[in-house]
Amino acid sequence: MDEKIVIIGNGVAGSTLALRLAEKGVASITLLSEESSYFFSRTALMYVYMGHLTKEQLEPFSRESWNKYPIQRIKARVLSISPEHQELSFRTSEGNEKQLSYDKLVIATGSKPAFYDWKGLEAKGVLGLYHLNDLEQLEEWAPNATTCPEAVVIGGGLIGIELCEMLLSRKIKTTLIIRENFFWSSHLPESDAQFVEKHIRSHHLNLIKEDELLEIRADENGRAASIQTKKGKTITCNLVGITTGVRPNIEFLKTSGLELDKGVLVDEYLKTSDSSIYAIGDCAQLRNPLPNRSAIEPVWYTGKLMGEILAQTFSGELISYNPGVWYNSAKFFDLEYQTYGKVSPKTLQPESEQHFHWETDDKAVTLSYDKTSEVFLGINTFGIRLNHKLVSHWIETAITIQEVIDRLEEAHFDPEFSNRHYKQIKHAFLQNH
How far apart are CA 41 and CA 257, in angstroms? Predict the structure, then answer.
C-alpha cells in the first residue's frame, strides 16, 4: 500500500510538494486548503485589481495539470492535529467535521496578516492584502475614486507599496504611514531607502514617516471615515489598508504538542519535533539557520525550494535544506528591485561591513563588502537586472569587491542598461575607495 502523505496548505510550498510527489508516483497524496481549491499566486493579487489578470490567471499551474494526477484535494479548515494517533480533524466548507489519518503530515499553512489591537478595526473598509477575500473586499469598498476618494495604508513593506499602487491605479488619493524614519529601513540601507522614497513620491503617493496608527473612526453607517495617528494627525479616508507584516499561521497547532516558537520548529531536513510531521514554507522556522539567513523567510523562492527538497526526501533521497545565497526581488511601482547576499540596513550593519552606493535618476546600486578583507558580501539593485547565477557564484566564492567592480558588466542582464553605466560605477568606486 502507498504511504499516505497529507499536506495542509496549497500555497507555493504545499503545491510544489504535492505535484512533485504526484509526478514521481511514490505516495497517496491528500491536499487540504481552506481558501481555494487551486493554488494561486498571492503576489499577483494586485494585477487582478488593476485589470491585468483574471482570477483564474492567478493560478501558476493549470487546472488540467492538477486533474491529471491522483491528488485528493479537500477544501476544508484544519481544526487540530493529533500526532499520537497520526490523525487530524477538519471542517469542510459545508460545515461537516471529519477526521483524516496520515503516515506523514506536512504543515504548509503559510502566513497570515499581523493585525494589532487598534481601536476601530471592526469598521467596514478596513482590510489587509493577503487573501482572495481581501481582493473581493477591495472591489467592494474601493471600486473607484467616486465610492472611495481617499485611502490610508498602514505599514511600509512590499505589500503596503503594492496596495498603494493598486489604489492609485484607480485615481484614489492614497496616504502611506510608516513608523520608521526611512522607507523599509528594516531591510534597506539609508541611501537605498531614500532612493526608493523619491521614486514612490513621484507616483503621487503621500508618504508620512515616523508616525503610527492610533485609532480608526467610523461614520454612522459603520464605514471607516478617518484615522488618528499617535502624533495627533487626523486623516479622512474611506478605506484603511493594514499591511504591518505577516506571522506564521500556526494557531491550530497550539495544543498539538509540537515544538513551536514564532513558527513550527524544524531541523535541516524540515522535520518537526515529531518524526512523522514536517513543515515547509512561511510557517516553518529553522532551528539552525545558515549564516546570513533568517530562521523564517516568508518569500516565494524559499517556499518553492522547500517543497522541491521535501519531495526528494519523500522519494528516498535524503537532502538537507540549503537555500544558498539569499536572493529576493520585488517592484516599487515600476522600479525593479533585486537583492543578493548580505546588504545590511543601518540598524543591523556591523562595523566590518562597508557599503558603496551609486545612483542616477532612475537606477541605483549598493554593493556590500568586508572592510578588512574586501570580500564581496552582497548587492542591491534598483532599475537594473543582474544574472542571478553569476552574482550568487561571486558571493559563494568570496571574490573581492574590486573584482566585482571590474567584472560587473559580465552580470549584465538588462538590455537598457548601457556600458557607460558600468564605467560610471567603476569610476565612482575608485574615487571613493
Answer: 32
